[in-house]
Write a structure and sequence with these properties.
The chain contains ten helices and twelve strands. By secondary structure, the chain is of the alpha/beta class. The chain has two domains: 228 residues, Spore Coat Polysaccharide Biosynthesis Protein SpsA, Chain A (Alpha-Beta Complex); 63 residues, no CATH class.
């Protein structure tokens, strides 16, 4: 069956399962849920929060402030990709779910953000669509306007980051990378490509999924008419920590072994041999060289540890008439 045949039944009025992974962040998660309440066609949304082993009172607070909210408790921290995998598989158990929206818990969505993504994915050759993403503060500066895969010390880059919005970023187009900060995926694509891979504890899970979707013959679509704001600082200060750099290094190394072949692995190693000394000098004046050493260790682990098998796609269900779950136009 071709992608076009598999996607021919896509119904823009089918239920949209929104998967949010919470870890010790009930305040942010509640704010994102409130943002989703204001979405045009919110009645079509099935909100599914995966609590990823929170060690604070997140679950109690979510249940108290959002009675009836669907919460899956993993019991331990499975990582961002692992938490999303749990949510995706749970969402697809319901045959009325035609779409899965992966969404960070630290965003504010525009009320009209969903319809353009659904329209973009109406083309059965499109495997996923992502919005124009701004920093929350300042709100007119881009965080991501699509992205591309590459072979350097990291394997993906967000386009437009740190730039003012303008006509250059207002054209819908095909890209090779979309971030799971916000990613709409049709059901038939997940049933063919599979969910996010928990082998990537944090970082690069989206680049891996995008590569698998591209390899399956799908296109990835950046849709600028869809907008949201991401609550991360425009400055990168504080994001270069040993824990994050370790997983960044490891995950990128796993990706190149999975997808880039021998020549790609060599390019990746050379790029890191050039980039890591520069990073060491930069972080030396900040007293943060431990983060650079952690990244180097992560790269080494990712290059040498046994590679787990990719996740098995969910068993496809026959499409059903989803009925009128709300007008998203």
């Amino acid at each position: 069956m071709t992608n076009r045949q598999a996607g021919a039944w896509r119904d823009p009025h089918a239920r949209v399962a929104v998967v949010l992974v919470n870890w010790n962040g009930a305040g942010d998660t509640l704010a994102t849920l409130a943002s989703l309440d204001r979405v045009n066609g919110a009645e079509a949304l099935r909100l599914l929060v995966v609590d990823n082993g929170s060690t604070d009172d997140s679950v109690a607070r979510l249940r108290r402030e959002r009675p009836g909210l669907e919460i899956l408790e993993t019991g331990k921290n499975l990582g961002f990709a692992g938490g999303n995998e749990v949510g995706i598989r749970k969402a697809l158990e319901a045959p009325e779910v035609g779409w899965v929206l992966l969404l960070n818990t630290d965003v504010e969505v525009d009320p009209g953000f969903l319809a353009p993504l659904l329209q973009a994915c109406g083309d059965p050759e499109v495997g996923a669509a992502g919005p124009k993403i701004f920093y929350f503060d300042p709100p007119d500066v881009l965080w991501a306007a699509g992205g591309r895969l590459r072979l350097r010390e990291t394997v993906a880059v967000e386009l437009g980051r740190g730039q003012k919005d303008g006509p250059r970023w207002n054209r819908a187009r095909d890209v090779t990378y979309l971030t799971t900060c916000c990613l709409l995926i049709p059901r038939d694509v997940l049933e063919r490509v599979g969910p996010l891979d928990p082998a990537y504890f944090i970082n690069v899970d989206d680049a891996d999924w995008c590569r698998r979707a591209l390899d399956a013959g799908y296109r990835l679509r950046y849709e600028p008419e869809s907008r949201l704001w991401h609550k991360v600082a425009a400055s990168t200060a504080g994001s270069y920590t040993p824990l994050k750099t370790y997983h960044t290094g490891r995950s990128n190394a796993v990706w190149v072994r999975r997808h880039a072949g021998t020549f790609g692995v060599l390019r990746f190693v050379v790029a890191n041999l050039l980039a890591l000394p520069v990073a060491f000098v930069r972080e030396l004046v900040r007293g943060n060289t431990r983060a650079v050493r952690s990244k180097a260790r992560g790269v080494l682990v990712g290059l040498t540890e046994p590679l787990p098998e990719p996740p098995v796609p969910p068993v496809p269900l026959l499409p059903v008439d989803a009925g009128a779950h709300g007008d998203l136009s």
